[in-house]
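Justification of resources, computational component.

The compute hours requested in this renewal are based largely on the per-chain cost of generating structure records like the one below. Each record pairs the submitted sequence with a full structure-token output. That output is archived, and it is also reused by downstream analysis tasks.
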Amino acid sequence: RWVLSLECKGSRNFLSALKRAVEVDFKDKDKHKSQGLYLLTTGIPDQETHTISAYVAEVCRGFDLQLHVCLFSVTKGTDSTGVIPARYANPREAASAFREIVQAANGRLHWFGEAGIFESDDIASIISEMEKAKNYSQKCAFLVESLKQRS
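The structure output for this chain reads:
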């Protein structure tokens, strides 16, 4: 129920928020085997991608932290405030930037919009596993057929 009372607000000062989360809000981080942060966003951070990636790589090296990004591409004309972010990028550029950032953090990118899922590391992993299983199944079927023909 508490989620229903939340309001969307803030800025795209990603680096400041990440520093707070990592340096202040992670209590007892040494007691946990791994931890993850999820960023829910609709656009690119204000800071340059390489700056964020370098910081994320350094922070994640210190303890087992993964940064996962859920990027929601909003259709044009849905921002009723008319506020233009300090740094603008189209959805593809934003996804590319976050892809670089999550790679530095050993995390995953999930990019979706009103039309559905554009890209998801989890789905790509599942598809890869399914392709491996299919290939293995075909090899097994070939082996069984070969053995039948020898008998």
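The CA atoms of residues 74 and 82 lie 14 Å apart. The chain has a mean pLDDT of 80.
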